[in-house]
């Protein structure tokens, strides 16, 4: 038996000025969860945040890397709870995220992945109204039928024509998603490729079309760096190529690249 029902495993890196805002949002959950901070870059700032909020720090020895850092956070969280959310240090979780998650889990114990709608905010916390999340919401349409969301074709419908599931909205059930969670070598589509793998395995994807967290877009984000070095385009094109013919891959990439504008418009802010 795990000691807790749910754990937020915070993946902390460097000295992000947004980390305290995230931790404060976790402290404000209407139902308390276990919270741990996981990092491969221990420093005084993270230690100070740990002391302020009372959340323990787990340190991974080795070079910083998204895959290894996320797997470490997931594995430490899975030791404590059957439900693990890898919380990104730039984002915010609204007070009822845990409440909604646990309610979904009580209704669907075969839930392998929980996800939800999200708001997009800029570096100053202002809500951004864009088309990207509307497209993602359309891709998630079939997931609204929770009675059928254990079927591979239904789960894949949210992933086949683009990644309709926001990575930071996800909570994973360790009974259906054993460690290591991330097994591919991508730098950007690591979460999308992982969800595609999980969609083909047993377990139900539960999606709530309710805004339960906020995803932050800012110049220092990992997404921005992957756009600037063209890595995002290369990896997304490769993933589409694994699921579609060349003409369909080209067409999907043509429209998918328009979503990059949400980040490019934030340059210099």
Q: What does this molecule look like?
A:
The chain is α/β, with parallel strands linked by helices. It is built from eleven helices and eight strands. The protein has helices at residues 19-27, 44-53, 66-78, 97-107, 132-139, 152-157, 190-199, 222-228, 231-243, 246-256, 261-264, and strands at 6-12, 34-39, 57-59, 83-88, 92-93, 111-121, 171-173, 204-216. Helix 9 (231-243) runs antiparallel to helix 10. The longest helix is centred in the first third of the chain and has 13 residues, at 66-78. The mean pLDDT is 92.
Shape: globular
Task: Please compute the radius of gyration using only Cα atoms.
Answer: 18 Å
Total beta strands: 8
**Mean of residue pLDDT values:** 92
Count of separate DSSP helical elements: 11
Low-confidence stretches: none
N- and C-termini, Cα separation: 47 Å
- The H/E string reads EHEHEHEEHEHHEHEHHHH
Structural class: alpha/beta
Give the helix level as a range of percent.
25-40%
Name the strands of the widest sheet in spatial order: 3-2-1-4-7-6-8-5
The major β-sheet equals: 8 strands, mixed
Estimated share of beta-strand residues: 15-25%
């Amino acid at each position: 038996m795990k000691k807790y029902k749910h754990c937020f495993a915070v993946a902390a890196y460097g000295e992000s000025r947004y980390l305290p805002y995230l931790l404060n949002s976790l402290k404000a959950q209407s139902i308390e969860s276990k919270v741990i901070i996981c990092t491969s870059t221990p420093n005084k700032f993270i230690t100070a945040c740990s002391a302020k909020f009372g959340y323990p720090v787990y340190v991974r020895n080795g070079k910083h890397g998204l895959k290894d850092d996320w797997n470490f956070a997931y594995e430490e969280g899975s030791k404590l709870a059957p439900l693990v959310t890898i919380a990104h240090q730039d984002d915010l979780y609204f007070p009822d995220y845990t409440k909604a998650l646990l309610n979904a889990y009580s209704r669907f114990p075969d839930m392998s992945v929980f996800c939800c709608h999200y708001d997009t905010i800029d570096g100053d916390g202002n809500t951004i109204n864009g088309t990207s999340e509307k497209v993602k919401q359309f891709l998630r349409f079939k997931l609204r039928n929770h009675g059928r969301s254990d079927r591979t074709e239904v789960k894949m419908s949210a992933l086949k024509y683009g990644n309709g599931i926001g990575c930071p909205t996800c909570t994973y059930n360790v009974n259906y998603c054993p460690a290591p969670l991330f097994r591919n070598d991508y730098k950007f589509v690591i979460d999308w490729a992982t969800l595609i793998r999980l969609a083909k395995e047993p377990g139900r994807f539960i999606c709530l079309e309710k805004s339960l967290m906020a995803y932050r877009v800012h110049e220092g984000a990992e997404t921005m760096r992957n756009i600037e070095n063209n890595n995002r385009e290369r990896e997304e094109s490769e993933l589409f190529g694994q699921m579609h013919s060349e003409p369909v891959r080209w067409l999907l990439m043509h429209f998918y690249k328009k979503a990059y504008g949400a980040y490019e418009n934030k340059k210099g802010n």
